[in-house]
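Lab meeting prep.
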Amino acid sequence: MELSPKQQVVEILKTKQRILLLTHKNPDGDAIGSILALYLSLKKLGKDVVAVCNDPAPAVFEYLPQIKEISQNFANGRDFVIALDVSQVKADKVMYKVVGDKLNIIITPATGNFTPEMVTTAAGSFNFETVVVLDSTDLERIGSPYDKNPEVFYEIPVVNIDHHAGNDQFGKINWVDITATSTSEILVSVLEALTGDPKFIDEDIATALLTGIITDTNSFQNNNTTPKSLTVAAQLVAFGGRQQDIIKYIYKTKPLSTLRLWGRALSNLRDERADRFVWTQLYKKDYLETSAAETESSGVIDELLKTAAGVDFALLLSEKNGEVHGSLRATSKNTDVSAIAKLFNGGGHPMAAAFQIDNSTLEQSGAMIIQKIKDYQSSQAKA
């Protein structure tokens, strides 16, 4: 009988030793929580694990244990090949010796002599047995780890674990559960099945997983909150998940730079009442002038714009990393903002979605985006 996706995920994590973990660029709480939780779990099982994200974790998540273990590249997982041409001079024996900070490779010729011209070096294959991609709808969302190393995803089995309905099913193994609130919620059952030990999830792992669930449900305020998500969250708290730390650092502690940036967002607010949405924009200069990091705008749409009354959704446009990012939040159950995100090749959930336009600015793309959304809203009103 064919194994279920969950069983396949558990089996490959059990049998593989060298594992690469990846998540999407511009990581949110679920991306950070899920990759960190799986990293800590596999390390605890004695696996050789590398966790990579295109962008550093936002400062708000610095309360998470070993957050610095998530790196921005995985060059350290690749073999380094030293090749010696033995077509003219044969090798008799090979040995190596570490002298101080140097590794000396000593090759004794059978006859004759080797010369430096006979030696070449090259990057070899990546030293991983499987790649696990978390919380990403497609490989492109991973960013530079995929863009710079596409061969990895064809040479090594890819495991795709996600909860978004628009997932591309890009893995050899795809476990996409669209009924889950978050990828972190999915991982709880993975870890239970992987170890069979109800006490395996410790305080640090539970805190990372709880971070993902709480942020993707906006502290259980969003409509995607389910009885299962509340049960899983309670289970993680019982395991020692530091729920009060999560609430304190994510929802109750804001640097002055964040407050200044949010003030800019509110001052730029536009009310498109005829088309039933509100929107605002943050330029690159807004981040610079408020001394705010690009990640500090992430909460403004949930905590401020989403409370707007009498509209279907809120939109935040921002300039980040040479791109225009759009974040959408529905205020009405009858609105599917993922359909709007798809107008710009984005995606997400009916209640929360996002998109980006590469190599662009708000001056170049802002008016086009708003007009396209107005046309969409008009067409929906007539339907």
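Slide two material, second protein:
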Amino acid sequence: MIAFTKMHGIGNDFVMVNGFGLDHDRIDWPHLARQTCDRSFGVGADGLILAMPGNADVPFRMRMWNPDGSESEMCGNGIRCFAEFLHQEGLTVDDRIPVLTGAGQLELQRLPGSQVRVNMGRARLLRGEIGMTGPEDETFVNQPVESFSPALQGTAVSMGNPHLVMFVESIASVPLENWGPRLEHHPLFPQRVNVHFVEAVSPHHLRQLTWERGAGRTLACGTGACACAVAAILNQKAQSPVEIDLPGGRLTIEVDADLQVWMTGPAATVFTGSWRIHDHQSASPSLAMNR
């Protein structure tokens, strides 16, 4: 049996697993992610997050798998949940927590009211840093999205994972289920991309609609909110700090002159439970939950 905790950050929900002491060779993590994240036959989540030992300098490492089993470099809402999860599991008593991720080392700070502030690192703008085709030393800021109809202007940003941001008059008018998957798999992004549509309400207020790589429509995307804030500042549509409303709630994003980014938002526990593992290749949907 694998114990888990279901958590969410403004509606972006995760199956959280304490990997300390687990026999990782017995567990097919991509397969387990596909099973547990299934909203009809599993727990239901936007991702499976594993807390693991780090190294001598950084005690914790976070890994995340999307509902389709692909591994993501990082997740902004997920890492806020990660900070709360470490405390709930008794793995740390510190409120300032360094964590290793696929996007590098990040610094987490637990605040009153189940809020977590994360130093998300520096936003990266070069095609080579983002994982785009084309000249590696060029940026993609307010550029036409090639071979896409209707015509869209996009800005690409990496927060350790790739994001494509488009500004629209109203996010309510965006046919996300049509445009989202087409843009996720656009040839500009060989490793696929997270897609965001943004409505600029005022210089310190944005509204965001997201199609996540490997997950589809989600209620929130933390790294995406950071990318949207950076893109809005680059396109002179916003100034730091930026309040961003997503379908699941609000995040506060701060961006300095060097494109260093901080994100603040909540993390909440929904319930705990256990998942039965039969062998190293499969997991049973038998589930016991405790609220």
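Talking points for slide two:
Residues 280-288 have pLDDT under 50 and may be disordered.
The chain has two domains: 2-114+267-290, 122-264.
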